[in-house]
Amino acid sequence: ALYRTAQDRGIDTWLTNTAAKELIVEDGRIIGVIAEDTTSGDTVEVLAKAVVMGSGGFNSNIDMVKEVRPDLRRHRILEGSGRGDTGDGHGMVEAVGGTTTHMDDIWFYVFAIPDHKDERGRRGLVIRGVPDNIWVNAQGVRFHNEDLSGGGTGSVAVLAQEPAYCWSVMDSTMTDDVTVSDPQYYIPGASVKDPEKVKVLIEESPHIKSGDTLEALASEIGVPEDTFVETVNHYNSGIDQGLTEDPDFGRPLSNRKMIQSPPYYALNFTPTARKNFGGVKTDLKCRAVDKHYEPIPGLFVAGELAGMAGGHINGKHGLEGTMLGPALFSGRVAGAWAAKDAGFGEGFK
Q1: Pick from 80, 65, 76: nearest CA to 165
Q2: Strand partners, 276
Q3: What is the pTM (predicted TM-score) of this model?
Q4: In this structure, are 185 and 44 located in the same domain?
Q5: Do 69 and 14 lie in a common domain?
Q6: Is residue 346 part of a domain?
Q7: Per-residue confidence (pLDDT) for residue 318, from 0 to 100
Q8: Within-domain flag for 14
Q9: What is the DSSP string of 51-109?
Q10: Is a pLDDT exceeding 90 seen at residue 3?
Q11: CB 299 within 8 A of CB 32
Q12: Does residue 263 have a cis bond before it (omega within 30 degrees)?
């Protein structure tokens, strides 16, 4: 839609493979950006009457994540956002006097495994579609209601373990439903999983272990065999007895599958930084503000770069999808007021 609208208005020049590096300031006003052609390395200078920034968050920069969350430095944390979310925009805004807020409010997923194809060993693959799995910690015991897997529940529980990871345990009847939320495991051109690619992942990933018996699986994942087998059997017994609720953690058990059909599998769930709830502080017109909360002329900021909107619109928690609305809306507001600032339109009404 953006491309078609631009074409309709006579815009026929697009800069692709071009990374913004620095904002241009003249007499206290932002008048453009200095960018770099990522193919040739050439510097490009783009002048404008107003600049709108929407460069995303910083959860694909684990060093930056741990800088704002020093409590996580001793844990393994994976990158789980868009690959371009490296925090470059935050640095650009701060370099011209902008301010950030609530940068430590980060939404973590824990239903993710390390991506074995990532040479840096930093990226995570979000795993979905396993409602009947159970989680065990490094001691081989359950510790949480697995149905509560979100950033405000499951992530908190896993991060409280020592060490801060868990194993998602399932049997052979469950693996066909595994979905990997990453384009490399989709059918080309569609956001639909490719079952064959997921099957290969399960077979090849060193972060997914299997065993023909529970004892063998325990050995593979390095947990005490007796404890692990007792944990699984105890959980299964609640289902077998027809209990409606798990007596240990309150998980509903009606219509739940037991873990009883070999081979058995365990996925190494690792905390993964997914969404930024803090970012560049703006006013209601999405203008970046300085430390005195005065707007920086010519500079507008939207989306996850601004903590979805304004700097911190979601607070510390969010439901799935509640980040999209503020990000889109703030983009619309920023665009309208930037256009007015450049001499077009009446701003956002």
Answers
A1: 76
A2: 106
A3: 0.92
A4: no
A5: yes
A6: no
A7: 79
A8: yes
A9: EEE----STT-HHHHHHH-GGGTTS--EE-S-TT-SSHHHHHHHHTT--EE-TT-EEEE
A10: no
A11: no
A12: yes
